[in-house]
Structure formats: C-alpha cells, structure tokens
Amino acid sequence: MKKSKLNYSELNSIYKDLVFFDSNYIRKTLHRADYIEQFLDKYKIDYHIYEHFVLVPDWVKYYLYIDGQKIDVLPTGLKSGKIEKNIKDSSDLENNYNYPNINFNSYLESKTDISTPIFYNVPSLAVSKNSINLLLNSNDVDGYLKVKIRDIKNKNFVIGNVDKAEQAIVVHYDALWYGAIDNTSSLGLILYMLKNKEINLNKNAIFLIGFTEIAYYWPEYWDYSFIRVIEKYEDVFKKVKRKLIIDCIGYKDTQFLTDKEYIEAYGVFGDNILIYGTPLEGLIAIYHATNDTIDKINFDQLKKDRDSLKTFLS
C-alpha cells in the first residue's frame, strides 16, 4: 500500500463538492451518484454498477402557519394530508410511525435548526425547538404536506475483488439536507483512500449504496436498498469474514459501535458485522439536521479514523 500523509486540502475539496443544502432528497442522491461515477472514472478506479428501482418520497409542497405566522419546516411524512397539532419528540427513536404529528429533536444543539431523525407513515413536519414554544401556546395551526411517490433508478457502486473478497465494506452515499457527517464524511474518506491507493482491492469489496435513508418499505424504510444489494451479492456477503460498515465518522469519539439503534439499522447484514462511526449519544445533536454542515467535519478526528481504517483495509 502507498504510504502518505493525509492531504487535508484534497480531502476537503471532495467535501466542498458534496456538502450543500438541498431539500430534494431525490435530486441530492442522484447528484451524488453522478459525482461518484465521475470521480471513479477520472482516477481510473475500476467499478461496476448494480441498478434497481426504489420508491421514494418527493415532497412537492409543505407549509406550516402558527397563528398566522409562517414557520420554517422540513418534511418528515410519507403521506399527504393536513398537519395535526400533535407534538412529538423525534429524538425518541421508538416513536409511533403512524401517529400524525409536528415533531422536533429535543437534543438538537441549536434552537433554530431543524432535525429529522424519524420519518412517519402519515402527514408530518419537523420544526425547530423555538417553533415548538410557539406551537405550545398557539390558538390556530394550519399545515399541509403533499408528497408524491417516485419510482427512481438507484445506482450502487461495487469496487474491488467481489469474487475473492475477504471483507465487505459498506458505505451509504445518500444524505439529507446538508449531510456532512451523515454520511459525506465516510464517503469522502473512502473516495480519497481509493484515489490514493490506500485500500487493498484484492482483499476488499466496497459497496457504495444509495437511497438508504428513506424508501417506501415499511416499517424499516431505511433497509430497502441494503436488501437489494445483499440479494444481488448474496454469495459475497455469505463468504466474507467480516462486513465493515462505515457511517458518520469524522465528528467526535469515532468507535466500533454497540448502540442498539445502529445494530438494528444494519441488522439485515446478519452476523460478523462491525459498525464504525459516532455513537448516537454524540450524533443526535446534529442528526439528519440543518446544522450537519461542513464545519462539523473534524479533520483531527478524521485523520484518526483514516489511520484506524487503514489497518482494516490495507
């Protein structure tokens, strides 16, 4: 393996290309797929693409007025309809997915930003903590969500020795809103390491998977693309010694995770999995939030993460 110091400028340029706000999940994910394909082509990294269709939400219209005042919101519902004044704390990941609501993340570090940890199978909107205070004392609430179901062709990128891989590396490349830590930090580092030949592609099969955050696959709406990839490459996932999942690195306190929520989210991969990322306790303050911006990427932590990953990937 080629040895080199971490080139912060080079890595940061990848993040700058990918971290920007977009409220359209479909457009953002397709842009990332195009970026990955162009990156791999530019640096002559061999890959192939596995495509499948996936049903995803297109939030075409949403609004909320509290006592006549227009409120900043983000969509968290997968069905159209009038918004009801039922307040939910979305930091409780054991939420009832079928309960119409207006939700907020009580652990969000900012009172003005908006976080969407959970998506619901009903009309639902997320607001800031400041807006919840308005809502609690309101007399009139007028809100609506219009969502269309789109059938989108998803590109999953497969890199490395699929036939003889000893290890499968899984990184989801889609993101919500800005999505710096979740999961641009992981995607950018893997692309950087591929470009700089820091990953042994004879031993590793890398899967960059799209449209994992939300799909019309209930109730595990995050599982659909994972399931399709696992079905397609069943022999690979059965024979590898380990499945290394990289999610939400480069923030703080990156480690191999035992959080119940992570284990359940990636449980579809079965046994012999390692999940490398930020514990949910630390992540929840920016999780799926408008404050998950590029300044949250901690390059000192990222260097440690890169050094740790090289021991597994070389």
Write up what this structure looks like.
This is NEQ028. The protein is an alpha/beta fold and 314 residues long. It has two domains: 214 residues, Aminopeptidase (3-Layer(aba) Sandwich), CATH 3.40.630; 90 residues, no CATH class. 30% of the residues lie in helices and 25% in strands. It is built from nine helices and 13 strands. Strands 1, 2, 4, 8, 9, 10, 11, 12 and 13 form a nine-stranded mixed β-sheet that branches. Helix 1 packs across helix 4. The longest helix is centred in the first third of the chain and has 18 residues. The chain is globular, with a radius of gyration of 20 Å. The N and C termini lie close together (6 Å).
